[in-house]
Each structure stands twice: as structure tokens, then as C-alpha cells.
Amino acid sequence: MATTDKEVNELIKREYEHGFITEIESDTFEPGLNEDVIARLSAIKKEPEWMLEWRLKAYRRWLEMDEPDWAHVGYPKVDYNSISYYSAPKRKEDMPQSLDEVDPELLKTYEKLGIPLHEREKLAGVAVDAVFDSVSVATTFKEPLAKAGVIFCSISEAVRDYPELVQKYLGTVVPHGDNFFAALNSAVFSDGTFVYVPKGVRCPMELSTYFRINAANTGQFERTLIIAEDSSYVSYLEGCTAPMRDENQLHAAVVELVALDDAQIKYSTVQNWYPGDENGKGGIFNFVTKRGACIGKNSKISWTQVETGSAVTWKYPSCVLRGDNSVGEFYSVALTNNFQQADTGTKMIHLGKNTSSTIISKGISAGKSSNAYRGLVKFGPGAEGARNFTQCDSLLIGDRCGAHTFPYIESKNKSAIVEHEATTSKVSDEQMFLCRQRGIEPEQAVSMIVNGFCKEVFKELPMEFAVEAGKLLEVSLEGSVG
Amino acid sequence: MLSIKNLHASVEGKEILKGINLEIKAGEVHAIMGPNGSGKSTLSQVLAGNEAFEVTEGEVTLNGENLLELETEERAREGIFLAFQYPVEIPGVSNLQFLRTAVNAMRQHKGEGEMNAAEFMKLAKDVSKQVDLDPAFLKRGVNEGFSGGEKKRNEVMQALLLQPKLAILDETDSGLDIDALQVVSNGVNALRAEDRAILMVTHYQRLLNHIVPDYVHVLAGGRIVKSGGRELALELEERGYGWLGIKDEEAANSAN
Ligand SMILES: Nc1ncnc2c1ncn2[C@@H]1O[C@H](COP(=O)(O)OP(=O)(O)O)[C@@H](O)[C@H]1O
Ligand SMILES: [Mg+2]
């Protein structure tokens, strides 16, 4: 018994692949946060007056708020005045007009990460927006998208070029004072992605954003806003990495999705921020607010996430099901190893009639990590005939890790139906012995068993990325056998 | 091919195997019989390298090579195959994926290239037909929701697929009805070859009507107490384990 557990623990020791630092000249703000810093940030971005006012309103709100402590995580207090709130690669011109003008070092960085920004390369068919520290450095495939009427650009550009749309929807799903981290983000968000899909349009390709934290002592506060008009469809994927640094770094993002009548948004995340070393030093604090509003009837929002990185994750992609017959889905794989902590799950808020939601959560804990699922399913008085199905499975690797499940159900409507299933299992010695008896290496066996456990979630990812996610798990579990 | 000398093994500090001696040559089929709890599965697991069991004394060689030094997966690649008495489930991992991973691991060891998906599919379908398993089983999770008999046929199918040097079959006959027993026996008989040895572990002699062994050994209390030819099994059937001075609560059933 003990031998096998020891082996498994050896196996899951892993190396972080994306830990390199790019030597690039940056313009970085002095650490610290006050109204002047926010005004400077807004000025650099040439923002209209209303945007600055909105930021300041959020900042003042934030000052009155306390950092939440209810999550099943523990971490040293963040000193918000020791963080720099803006860092951007230095450039001679204002913004690169095409990829050819992007700093070659940056392009190399993305190539190292396996994300070629050159349109001809292998991600052809997927439009990419790359966000490096605080700014968007390149967005590909703008023209064919524009032809279809789809707007895909950085949120900074959108604030300048599509102010009506941004003003109409920004903060409608996640208000500026929603929670501590959302308020902070609203005050200091530096960049992020904006997507607008007009009525009746099926977005012709996958959209994707890659986020990269590079500079030291900076926080990344991106903001994403996706609007799907009546009968439109869009599939969006984000990926994230960061260098290995001994200090913790803060990532506090906000994502807002709006789906109107008969519209569908599919939002997938492959999160692989630096998790810290095997002694728990360093790593990203990933405190994120993601929420989608199914405003229209028959609309649908699906969240799929594969979370393998970050030292501490605090994240609950949620759906507010306002439109009648609207559908919310949450498919999640969260893997924690070493000293990583994750408190993640979802909220499904049923307001409209016959709304339905599905939650499939797969938590994998290894090493000394802690992995919690926290989910709220809520039915308002008007949610006639609404239903939810929740399935929460935990897989333990070794015997020093922990898995926790916190399901909350609140119902104000008697006709609502909830089904909840939960299981906890271990990668057993018998399973390992069977695989090895058939000649399979222990590493490969663990990875195969874990992939099998996650199958229901992986099949929800866009094809290209399902393969990537499988490989990511394999890397995350890679190591040497003792 | 396989040589076991004075093998002692224990589990959780309790000695189960108390000095096993056995020689198996290529092309031979040996049957190990014995009452429940006599150590038949322990012997099978120890040969395959299950780390839950500790070898405290003795030696085992496969074609002259010290088997006990090798990891489980290395023994498998050297040609040791164990058909489990209780095959475990691996949810979500398809049989096909599992088997292809296994076949390719073996091929890699022999310096052969990976088998592509189409080639593999054809091979897998062929062997599944040999044990009368619907190829649809290949798409199901490993042993997931298989009936007892399906699990056993699945084990024999894997032996046919991996073509081992020494196949150890641990009670591959138990829980099978007469038709399934015939199917499984046909599969095992198809494995018989000049360069392959088979070690069949069974509680009942009925299997030996279908797969005729060259040698029969009786295991009791962690030792081989009697060895003989095919006729030994028949004698056991007639007279029960009590004849050898072995207590067996199931002796009465052993003849069915
Ligand atoms: N994992 C184990 N832990 C403790 N005892 C075991 C274990 N496996 C087998 N045993 C014991 O070893 C003895 C032999 O068991 P086994 O080899 O399974 O016998 P058989 O296969 O002949 O029925 C039994 O007394 C059994 O209880
Ligand atoms: Mg047994």
C-alpha cells in the first residue's frame, strides 16, 4: 500500500513549463493605489470621462469593503499598496497596427507558450487576442470577423471605439460593487477582451484570449465583456500562464457575459497560472468573478473550465437565468497539487420559467493540496418548472490531500426540481497494479486514470483544446517514479 | 521457462506462501488447485509483482533472469500476464484506449513502432470475437459495469491480444455458466503454444475437462502438497481435498 502511495506522490511532482521570464522593456507604475493612479491609468488609455468616473466610483466602494474570508483557503494577506497597477511592454508607437509591428521578443514569448500569433500558423481558424501584463498586444483575424459583423478587440479599444455598447452593458452582470475583488477590478482593470456578436450571426471561428503575466510585483486585472445578440452564437476560450517567481502575484479578473433571446455563449478556460513551487512558495492568487446573464428567452450559457494552475483559486463562474427556458451549464475540472488551494464552483440563479441548469464538477487533489467545490443553486419565486442537475466527483491521489464539497440550495418555488450526486474516489492501488501488469508506465497510468475521470468535462471543450487539456493534465502529473 | 525455488511471501506481516517449488517449461500447461485461502491468488500476484505482498525468502527466475528484481511493468513486458480473479474497474477509460496503451507500451519495449488506431482496431475486434465479446465492449470503460462472465472473457481477450510468454489465469473459470466456460476455454486453448507456458489456478476440476493440463499441483497451507498428471485432478474430484488430509469447507461443492 504505502509503496504505491509513495510512488504516486513522486509522480505528481511536476515542473512548471511556462516559468520563463521575458526580458522586455516595460513601462511600469510605481507600486501603490490611490485616485491619482487610477486617473493616470485612465489617461494612458485615453478613456472618456464616464469611464474614469465609473472606475473612481468602484474604487471608493472598494475602500469600504473587507476582503472575503469565507472560502476554504488560507493565504498571506495581500498588501494592495505593494502592487503595481500597470505594466506594459514599451513601444515606440502607440499601438501596433499589425503583427509585424509587435516586438519580436513578445512574439517569441507566445511561440514558446505554443500560441503562434501569426495567422498562418497552426491555430488557423482560431482568432487570438494576446494580453501581456496589463495590455492587449495583438488580436488576430480582425478582418474576417469584421466581415461577419463580429467585434473582437481589446476592451481598451472598445471603450474608445464602441462606447455605447460598453456603457450599455459594462457592470450590468457584475456590478462595480459586487464583491471585494470585482470592485478592485472595476477600479483598475487595465485590459481584457471585448466581443460583440450581432443578431443572427454565428461567429465563424473560435475566439480565444491568452493571458500572460510577466512583470514582477504587478497584478493582472483584466476585464472581459461578451455580448451575444438575438439568435447569435459564439465560442470563446481563454488560456493563462505566468513566470515562476518567489512572490505571490495577484490576478483579479472580471468576466461578464450577456446572452439575449435564443443566443448561445460557450466560454472555456484553460487556466495554468504558475502554481508555486513544491514547498508552496510563490504562485498566482487567482481571485476571479465570472458571471453570465441569460437575459433572453431560450438563451444558453456554458462555462467549461480546466483549472490546473495558481497557488490559490477563488472562482465561481455563474449563470443568472432570467429568460424563460434559458439554460446554464458548468463543466469543471480542477486539479490541485503540492500546496495549491482551490475553492471553486458555480452559482445557478433560476429566475425565469422552465430554466434548467447542469453542473458537472471534477476535483482532483494530489500532494498536500486542498480542493473544494462550492455551489449555489437558487430558485426565485418565478422559476416555475425549473430544474437543476448537479454531479460533484472528487478524486484523491495519495493520502495527504483534501477534497470538500459545499453545495447550497435555496428555493422559493415549490415546482423546482434539484438532483444532486456526489462521489469521492481514490486512484486505487488495484487500478495502478492492473495498468502496470499490462506493461503501462505508472506515470501514464495515473494520467490515463485521471483523464478518464475528467472525460465528461473534456468532451465539452472545443476539439483543439480538449487535446491540449489532456496534455496539460499529463504534464501536471508528470514526474519521476521512485 | 519459470523456476520457483523455496518461495516465501507474506502480506501484512502474515506468511501466506511457505516454500513453493515449481518448474514450468515452455509449451506446458500447469494447473494449481487447492481449497479457498490456500494461497493460489497470492502466488499469482507475487509472480506478477504486486507490491502489497512481500517476498521474504526464495527465488523466481524467468528464462534464467531474476524476476523478483523487476518492477511490475517490466515483468509484464518480459511476458508475464495475469488474468485477474477480480478485475478492477477504471471508469471513463475506454477498454480500447487502455488496451492500445498497453500494446504500445509492450511494442515500445521491443523497439517496435506504435500501432496506429486503425491497425489496432482491427486486431482488437479479432480477439474480441475469439472470446465472443461484442466489439461494442471495446468502447466501454475498463470493466465498467461488466458482468462477472464478461470480465473473465475480457481478461482472456487481453491475453490473446498481448501474447505473453507465461499466462497466469487466476480462477478464470469461476462464476461462468457452461456456455461461457466453453468460450473461455476455447480462448485459453488458442493461447496454447510451443513457446508459451500457462499456469491455471482453479478451485474446481471442471475447467480441466476443457483445458487439459500437463501437470496438476495441489496447494494447501502455502505449500504444494502433491503434484501429478491430469489424473490427479480427477482423483481430487472423486475423493475431495479431504483425501489429502486437507480441510476444505467447500470440499462438498468442489465436484460440481
Ligand atoms: N491483501 C491481503 N491482506 C490480508 N490478507 C490477505 C490478503 N490477500 C490474501 N490474504 C490472505 O491470504 C490467504 C490466502 O489468500 P489467497 O491467496 O487469496 O487464497 P486463494 O486464492 O487460494 O483462495 C488467505 O488467508 C487470505 O485471507
Ligand atoms: Mg483466489
Report on the structure:
By secondary structure, chain A is α/β, with parallel strands linked by helices. Chain A has one domain (20-427). Chain A has twelve helices and 23 strands. Chain A has helices spanning 2-11, 35-44, 49-63, 104-112, 142-147, 155-161, 163-169, 180-188, 429-437, 442-453, 455-458, 463-476, and strands spanning 26-28, 87-89, 126-132, 135-139, 151-154, 193-197, 206-212, 223-228, 233-241, 248-251, 254-259, 264-271, 283-294, 300-307, 312-315, 318-321, 327-336, 341-350, 356-365, 370-379, 387-396, 402-411, 417-426. In chain A, the strands form three sheets. In chain A, strands 5, 6, 8, 10, 11, 13, 15, 16, 18, 20 and 22 form an eleven-stranded mixed β-sheet that branches. A ten-stranded mixed β-sheet of chain A has the order 4-3-7-9-12-14-17-19-21-23. In chain A, strands 1-2 form a two-stranded antiparallel sheet. Chain A is globular. Residues 1-9, 92-97 and 118-124 of chain A have low confidence and may be disordered. Chain B is α/β, with parallel strands linked by helices. Chain B has helices spanning 40-48, 72-77, 95-109, 117-130, 148-162, 178-191, 207-210, 230-239; strands spanning 2-11, 14-24, 29-33, 53-62, 65-66, 80-83, 90-94, 141-142, 166-170, 197-202, 215-220, 223-228. Chain B is globular. In chain B, strand 11 (215-220) and strand 12 (223-228) form a beta hairpin. Mean pLDDT of chain B is 91; it is low at 250-256. Chain B has one domain (2-255): 3-Layer(aba) Sandwich (Rossmann fold). The two termini of chain B are 33 Å apart. Chain B is 34% helix and 28% strand.
**Distance between the terminal alpha carbons of chain B, to the nearest Å?**
33 Å
> Sheet bearing the most strands of chain A, described?
11 strands, mixed
Radius of gyration of chain A, whole Å: 22 Å
Q: Which pair of chains has the greatest number of interface residues, and how are they split between the two chains?
A: A-B, 26 and 31 residues
Strand tally of chain B? 12
Overall geometry of chain A: globular
Strand order within the widest beta sheet of chain B: 6-9-10-3-11-12
The helix tally of chain B amounts to 8
Number of domains of chain B: 1
* CA-based shape of chain B: globular
The largest sheet of chain B is:
6 strands, mixed
Oligomer designation: heterodimer
User: What portion of residues of chain B belong to β-strands?
Assistant: 25-35%
- Which ions, cofactors or small ligands are bound in this entry? adenosine-5'-diphosphate, magnesium ion
State the end-to-end CA separation of chain A. 14 Å
Helix and strand run of chain B: EEEHEEHEEHHEHEHEHEEH
